[in-house]
Amino acid sequence: MTSIIRFQNVTKRFGALTVLDDFNFDVRPGEKVTLIGPSGSGKSTVLRILMTLEPFQEGHLELAGISYHEPNGRGAFKASEKHLHKIRCNVGMVFQSFNLFPHMTVLRNIVEAPVAVLKMKRAEVESRAIDLLRMVGLLDKKDHYPSQLSGGQQQRVAIARALAMRPRVLLFDEPTSALDPQLVGEVLGVIRALASEHDLTMLLVTHEMRFAREVSDRVCFFDKGRIVEQGDPDRFFGNPEQPRTREFLSSILND
Ligand SMILES: Nc1ncnc2c1ncn2[C@@H]1O[C@H](COP(=O)(O)OP(=O)(O)OP(=O)(O)O)[C@@H](O)[C@H]1O
């Protein structure tokens, strides 16, 4: 079985703090995987490393067959800009806090990166951006600025923006946790629709357990830099095996 994401014995430290400890993790092409776990356990760090936003100290990482090492093996994350560019063309990320460019319209927010980074033709990207805005239900907002949109609408633009780069892997880092409760549903609805896309690999960090159960092929409980337990959602939520998983699930489900 080929993996589209592969962490092999990855160790990540921030100073004296070891966040990932000899971490191994594989994701199949098209798989939708959710990472859940206590605050501070390292879930965002997994995504940030994949997005090349964080270096790591030991181990080996592959995304879509591209290694995160220099081919000559000089050590983790000594990749050239060209190499990083290759990786970043395959992976997109949706952050907790939208991160739209405030001085650009919705349409430009979506169009700029594919034109600047992928050197795609502006007209072609615009036409795809229009399709994506229609998909996230915001075509009528294309000439608005982010400050004129609700948080839920901004997050839907952020999802469209990530998709405009045609990533093979899409990472979601707690995409609804900065939203008012009444806006969560509209964003989850868009992600749910994406989850039905066979070819797109999705890795999500979320505290929305019902949603995780609904969209994931696999749920992983992550604690102290390791996966403690994983499984298909019905088995995982219906019959968690590890005491730490049970403890975690009962603490959040009783909140
Ligand atoms: N840039 C940094 N410098 C130092 N420590 C960091 C840095 N980023 C994260 N950490 C620490 O690494 C650990 C893992 O953080 P991470 O954000 O990956 O956890 P998380 O599981 O995503 O938590 P949450 O659910 O609260 O977002 C935490 O103890 C955090 O304080």
Automatic annotation (TrEMBL):
It comes from Microvirga brassicacearum. Residues 5-249 form the ABC transporter domain. Belongs to the ABC transporter superfamily. Pfam families: ABC_tran. It is a peripheral membrane protein. One of its GO terms (molecular function) is ATP hydrolysis activity. This is Ectoine/hydroxyectoine ABC transporter ATP-binding protein EhuA. InterPro entries: AAA+_ATPase, ABC_ATPase_HisP-typ, ABC_transporter-like_ATP-bd, ABC_transporter-like_CS, Ectoine_EhuA, MetN_ABC_transporter-like, P-loop_NTPase. Its main location: membrane. Keywords: Amino-acid transport, ATP-binding, Cell membrane, Membrane, Nucleotide-binding, Transport. CDD domains: ABC_HisP_GlnQ.
